[in-house]
Amino acid sequence: MEQPVALSTQDAHINRLLENRALPVEKVAEMVGFYTATSFRQHFRQRYQVSPRAWRKTFGEVEG
């Protein structure tokens, strides 16, 4: 899975937050202005054709 080439500042911020596996998706959703994690997940999937969890699995920082 390739990351989109041209990202808005907000997209880049969301992606960096998701790549930090220490933050639950619910917290990321709250930090970027979504009222619910469900609405964030729907928006993210619509935008990237992948779930936040799958994005994190592919691009997230390795814990340890």
UniProtKB/TrEMBL annotation:
Signal sequence range: none
Domain HTH araC/xylS-type: 16-58
Keywords from the UniProt entry: Transcription, Transcription regulation
The keyword Transcription regulation appears for this protein: yes
Pfam family, one: HTH_18
InterPro entries: Homeodomain-like_sf, HTH_AraC
Official protein name in the record: Helix-turn-helix domain-containing protein
Originating organism: Zobellella iuensis
